[in-house]
Each structure stands twice: as C-alpha cells, then as structure tokens.
Amino acid sequence: MTTTDLPDNVLGDVPTGGSRPQGDAAAAGVRLTDYADAVGLERELGARPGEYVVTLPGEKKLKTVLSLMVRERTTSVSAFVIRNPDENHEAFYRTLLRKNLRLPGLAYAIDSDGDVYVRGEVPTPALEAEYLDQLFGVVLAACDEAFNDLLALGFLGSMKKEWAWRVSRGESTRNLDAFRHLLSSGDDPQP
Fold it and tell me: How far, in Å, CA of 14 to CA of 73, rounded?
C-alpha cells in the first residue's frame, strides 16, 4: 500500500507528494483576516508560513497575542498566558488543571521554561466568522479572566515586595490596585 492509497484523513497535514487539492488553508486565511478586520482586531502575518498573529484586547491582562498556524486540515492555536510562577507551584498548576476541565477545545500547557500557554488544534474548515468569534472568546477568557488569580497564586511574594517598594518611595500603586486587598497593610497611604 502506498500513501496515495490511503484516505486523505489518515495523513492529516503530512505531505504525500500526490495531487491533494490545495486551498483550504488559503481560504481559511482569508476568512480569518476578514473576520479580524471586521471586528477591529490587530493582526499581522507571523514569521512562519501559514501563521497569523491576532491581538485580543483584555481587561485584567492588557492584551493576549494569539498565534494561529493555518494548515490544510488543522489549525494550531497558541496564546501566551503567564510566565513560569515564582512560588506556590503545586497550587498554581492544580488551578490550571482544574480550569482545563472547563476549557472547550483548548488546554493550558507549559513550555520547557515553565511558561503557560493556551493551546489547541481546530479543524481548518471550521474557521468561519461564527466559530472564530467563539474561539477567540474562549482564548481571551482563558488568558484574561484567570490572569489575576494566577498572578496572586504564583507571584504574591514579588508583588508584596513591589508594593512595599512603591509605598516606601511614595510611588503610585495603581497597577497593583486589583491586589490591594492582598498587599496593603491597611495603614499604607492612598495613592
């Protein structure tokens, strides 16, 4: 049996050298860029062939940069969430694993440095406006909604030092206001 005898879905995105129809990735790329433009998202081509980079605006996290590697059959989705925690690793990773149970089609993962990403594979033909809206919403929720909780779990010691340093010098603590209840001693001067 040769690779040309196999059904297309067995090989996925592995090139066979045969005459497989091309175009799903190109058409999906057009739909992706059209959607991003229509909803006013920043976008650019990535460094790798077939890569699109979309910036999602956040509330707790300023922005989430999403990489989509569009291939003929599947599209790889990846977004940085937060760097490797400084402390409390067990509770930090337990929280991520529990959140994975409620994350449709994607999952939290770590790279070799311990930095956290949201990752997944989706079918390329599904990259239509309605699905992209849902996908981008899930990615943004996974990166943005969990951000402050993950910061408090993995970086509280560093934030306490930063808070103390800022208060001692009369510097603004505005960027740490979301954590005031964890950081302030109660007699700290108000900004």
Answer: 10
Nearest to 135 by CA among 158, 96, 105: 105
Which tens digit of pLDDT belongs to each residue from 83-104? 999 999 999 999 999 999 999 8
pTM of the model: 0.81
H-only helix segments in the chain: 8-11, 24-38, 89-100, 129-140, 147-168, 180-183
**pLDDT lower than 50: segments of the chain:** 1-21, 191
Q: To which residue do tokens 């505005």 refer?
A: 174
Identify the burial level of 135 via C-beta atoms within 10 angstroms of its C-beta, where 0-12 means exposed, 13-18 middle and 19 or more buried. buried
Q: How far apart are CA 16 and CA 44, in angstroms?
A: 30
For residues 84 and 111, the answer to whether their CB atoms sit within 8 Å is no
Which residues lie closer than 8 Å to 109 by C-beta, 6 or more apart? Answer: 116, 117, 118, 119
